[in-house]
Amino acid sequence: MDVLSREPADLVIEGRRPKVAVVLFNLGGPDNQEAVKPFLLNLFTDPAILRVPPFIRPFLARLIAYRRVPAARENYRLMGGGSPLLPLTEKQAHALEADLRRDWDVKCFIAMRYWHPFSEAAARAVRDWQPDEVLLLPLYPHFSTTTTGSSLTAWREAAARVGLVANTTTLCCWFNDDRIAANAAAILQDTIDAARAALPPDVPLRILFSAHGLPQTIVDRGDPYQFQIEAYVASLRRYLRDPEADGVVCYQSRATPQKWLGPSTDEAVVAAGRDGCAVVVVPVAFVSDHSETLVELDMEYRELAHNSGVPGYFRAPVQNDDPGFIAALGQLARAAQRHGAGLCSASSGRACPAPHRDCPFARAGQAFSARTVATVC
């Protein structure tokens, strides 16, 4: 049974509402030009990202970061000098707090992976607030060892360092949550309708469901990310007015020479131009705007589309603090809290088929302590 369909539990603890700390995980981003290089160093020294022997990683990370700094600084300059991810996440946190305050004594904390505020600062703030329960809620809908897995590892280590001990529930993924998909589909449908109104009737329209890419080797080793992306897109399509509309799942932001998931978004844009199709690009792995949407999709791929003869280029908004999204996220948080301490997904238990060995349910064997600094992942 889907955890969201359960009857609400009694949320009163000894005559009062539960005191719940909700920790929102996200990637983070440099807030100014000087922060770009250390942000990239933090990113590429993460073993979940750069999967090379430990004695090589620091040297290779510095080399990669050094080479990427000029282009990255230019991208952030185009967004006003730094990443908008933290301010947008703060808006989401405030909106989610307001929604959950109807039932809980609640406070949302932000734990970024590669730039401030880091997990240790968030864990210290949670410890000092002294909650009854902690809910770990990644703002990555789809589980990957490179995103949610890495953030949970950082949280576990940070919580141990600061002495945070609390009943902890970890929501590992929510790619299959119907409320989230319905909200995203409504936003996408508005963009499709606007595109159709702007295009001549005889111009075909193709939807590019663009997710952040991942090296193929990581998926081959058992990471469930690609499965979850494709399942989410299938769910999202069911809520569109035309579920069978022309569309393709593609992957953006390739960062290394090795083989990545395909087709790439740039290949899909070029193919649309060759086929005479206008495109609606919808970011499906992001719930907040950042460089991959505001620069890569809005500027770089738009220019590529123009140069490739695409007759119309439209980009669907991400959810950010859309009221419908926040309401859906609030229901998801309530369902996870009713599940109790330990690991859960939007469907309560394991949502990935057996071959995906890096699903956290598979890796942890579903054996969790109810009172812990963090659930394992």
Number of helices: 12
CATH architecture of the largest domain: 3-Layer(aba) Sandwich
Which of globular, elongated, flat, extended, rod-shaped describes the shape?
A: globular
Under CATH at level 1, the class of the largest domain stands as Alpha Beta
Overall number of structural domains: 2
DSSP strand count: 10
Helix content: 40-55%
Order of helices and strands: EHHHEHEHEHEHHEHEHEHEHE
Which runs of at least 5 residues are low in confidence (pLDDT < 50)? 1-11, 366-377
C-alpha end-to-end distance: 24 Å
Largest sheet: 6 strands, mixed
Strand content bin: 5-15%
Helix-strand makeup class: alpha/beta
If you had to describe this structure to a student in words, what would you say it looks like?
It is a single chain. The chain has 377 residues and is of the alpha/beta class. It folds into two domains: 3-175 and 322-372, Rossmann fold (3-Layer(aba) Sandwich), CATH 3.40.50.1400; 178-315, Rossmann fold (3-Layer(aba) Sandwich). Helix content is 43%, strand content 15%. The chain is built from twelve helices and ten strands. The chain has helices at 36-44, 57-78, 85-100, 119-129, 148-162, 178-198, 216-220, 225-238, 265-275, 291-307, 323-339, 360-364, and strands at 19-26, 105-112, 133-138, 166-171, 205-212, 247-252, 278-283, 313-315, 342-344, 371-372. Strands 1, 2, 3, 4, 9 and 10 form a six-stranded mixed β-sheet that branches. Strands 6-5-7-8 form a four-stranded parallel β-sheet, with helices on both faces. β3 (133-138), α5 (148-162) and β4 form a beta-alpha-beta unit. α4 packs across α5 (148-162). The chain is globular. The two termini are 24 Å apart. The relative contact order is 0.16. Residues 1-11 and 366-377 have low confidence and may be disordered.
